[in-house]
Amino acid sequence: MESAGTEGNSLSRTDFIYCCGAVTEVLRFGPAHLNHEHKVLFLVIPGNPGIVGFYKTFMQALHASFGFRHPVWAVSHAGHCDPPVSMDMVEDASFIEEGDIFGINGQIEHKLAFLRKHVPKETRLVLLGHSIGCYIILDMMKRNPELQVCTVIKADETRQVPQNAMQCKVLKAVMLFPTIERMAQTPQGRILTPALCHMRYLAYLPLFLLSLLPERLKTALVKLAFSRIQSLDSTVVAPTVDLLSGDCAANAMYMGGQEMKGVLERDNLTIKNNLKKLVFYYGAADHWCPVQYYHDIKKDFPSGDIRLCRNGFRHAFVLDTGKDVAGMVIEWLSNDLRS
């Protein structure tokens, strides 16, 4: 199913597809399909919940900043969307159970499958991860050598180059408010780990009852919940309402429980192997990623491009500062894109 709409001068398009057997929402600014003319693709890997509508303002600003030349896409997490009436949440239940597609490992394989099917090998990628999306990106790069840094071979060197060594795709990977280590030990993790790992089933009945409410009432409740955010981005209201569909929230909670159990030690080897391609941006008051984590990684990788927020942006930056964060990303990437 497809729908399209215009945002200023930038055309946005929403598609619902099956990827790894699970319904997946893809938000696109720019062309719906890539060809040899599209040298660079910006691809957003969201946090949790992985609803692409949250990133609309952020993506639109990125798309406009480079004269609409580079496509900007976002792919939802598997099952983190409210599917149209013509589609079920899953295409094949047996495949979903076998691959645990809604878990963190399944979500990583889901993103790799999306790349294989929808992104040509010659397209260079700018990966934009948010929160757990940063962990997913690092694991994608570890699992698929084609995404890692290419080694430049001089003309006079005679050693043989592996075939896939020259199929590298990642131009840059930007890690926004990265939750890539010790999640259960963070202030927010200590609060939510018991709920997500042991008591999430208690939330299913209230979620089901919320899903039965009329859309206008759900919208009013969401606006009330966000009423304390003075500069709220109005585009996040609709995707938040979609989160109240029931299944979407349940899948997000299931994934969150696995994050608390599985996101433990930082993957220093993958970071070391790709350090020149990575930009890390840590929050100064981030309850999902304490400032100490910034100091730790900065100490371990002193030459890395690792930044600490000085602007007071919240972890969920899409709620009110999507355009501002996009402006920073544009500044960081301008030299790489020019070259």
What would you say this structure looks like, in words?
There is one protein chain. This protein has 339 residues and is α/β, with parallel strands linked by helices. The chain is 39% helix and 17% strand. The protein contains twelve helices and nine strands. The protein has helices at residues 56-65, 93-99, 104-118, 132-143, 187-198, 204-211, 215-225, 237-243, 247-262, 268-273, 291-300, 322-338; strands at residues 2-7, 10-19, 22-29, 40-45, 72-75, 124-130, 170-176, 278-282, 305-308. It has a nine-stranded mixed sheet with strand order 1-2-3-5-4-6-7-8-9, with helices on both faces. A hairpin with a 2-residue loop joins strand 1 and strand 2. Helix 3 (104-118) crosses helix 4 (132-143), helix 5 crosses helix 9 and helix 7 packs across helix 8. The longest helix has 17 residues, at 322-338. It starts with a strand and ends with a helix. Residues 1-8 and 150-166 have low confidence and may be disordered.
Largest sheet: 9 strands, mixed
Kindly report how far apart the N and C termini lie.
Answer: 37 Å
Reading the helices and strands in chain order gives EEEEHEHHEHEHHHHHHEHEH
For the largest sheet, list the strands in their spatial order.
1-2-3-5-4-6-7-8-9
Gross morphology: globular
Please give the radius of gyration in angstroms: 20 Å
Instruction: Tell me the helix content.
Output: 25-40%
What structural category arises from helix and sheet content?
Answer: alpha/beta
Extract low-pLDDT stretches. 1-8, 150-166
Number of E strands: 9
- What count of helical segments does DSSP give? 12
Strand content: 15-25%
- Average pLDDT figure: 88
